[in-house]
Structure formats: structure tokens, C-alpha cells
Amino acid sequence: xxxxxxxRILATALExxxxxxxxxxxxxxxxxxxxxxxxxxxxxxxxxxEIWNTLLDEMIAYYTSRFGSPEHLPPVPESPEELVVITMxxxxxxxxxxxxxxxxxxxxxxxFRDDRARELASRHFLTGLTxxxxxxxxxMMDRGLLRRDDPEMLAFAYTAPISALIHLCxxxxxKTPDAMARIEAFCRHFIRTYKI
Length: 196
What we know:
Layout lengths: L1 H19 L6 H8 L3 H5 L5 H19 L13 H17 L1 H13 L4 H28 L8 H21 L4 H19 L2
Helix pairs in contact: 1-2, 1-4, 1-6, 5-9, 6-7, 7-8, 8-9
């Protein structure tokens, strides 16, 4: 039961932080929305800051286990088409998983207030994606699927436009189908440009 309450607090906090930001979310509203008293909440968390840090820890683990990270790389594709399939599966997850969408919104806003959020935003929106795809492109070059080039620069050139279109989905959800189509078209253009 205590574990369920803690999970409910974190889920509601994520939702409120994604809508109102950290500063715009107060403990009284959070506990009230859960039907808890402040004392019940403080049995699980000492402060709003502890909720924030626990939430970030949980979202890092959630994202890493389902999307990947530089430590948990996607497989090196066997063909250029498989690169498109892997990429679109990753994009579909990151655009449609509500927890990830809310986390991305929180990081986008809170990166200007919180050092940890800034570091996570940089990693998830830019540096981590480059680090994930650098060995993918290196492996594809080794397999003779892509022409030789700097794999880190290719990873950056590949992931930056995709990341930008994912952020468009967050800002303007009605454009998600078009953005997904543009991402797939970009992936195919990239392959035409760099394949052997």
C-alpha cells in the first residue's frame, strides 16, 4: 500500500510539474489532488525537492530501459532499412509514451532553473542521442552499409533534426502525424545520402 501511495505521488507530481512547472506546483495542491493530507505525503517524501529528485531518478531508469542510452545501445542494423525501422520504433515510443512526453516537457522548462534538469535535458535532447548513434553508424560502416565518414558527426547530423521534430510534437500535438512522416522521410534521405 505504501509503495502504491508513493507511486501515485510521483505520477501526480510528474503530471503537475509538466503542466505548472516545479515552482507552480505546491505540496498542498499535490496532496489534495491525491486525497492525502500533508502528513501522509511526508511519510513518503521529506520535501518537494525530494519528490523532484526521486522523479528524475525514476524517469532516467524508465527511459533507459525502454528507449536506450549510451550504456544500452540499440543494435547495429543489418541493413539501411533496419535503421529506419529501429529509428521509427524509438521515435514512436518517445512521442507517444505519456510519461516520456511529460518528462520532456518538465526538462524543457526546468533546465533553466535546475542544474540536474539542464544536464538531463542536454543528454536526452542532444549528447546522449549522438553518443547512442555514433557506434551504430560506426558498425554500419564496418558492415559496408554506409560510406566512411566521421561516425560522431553522422550521429549528430542524424539525431538533431529528429529531436527537433519530436519537440514540435510536444508543442503542437496536432502536427504529430506530419512530424512522424517527415522523420521517416528524413531517415530515408539520410540513407540515400550516406549509403554505399
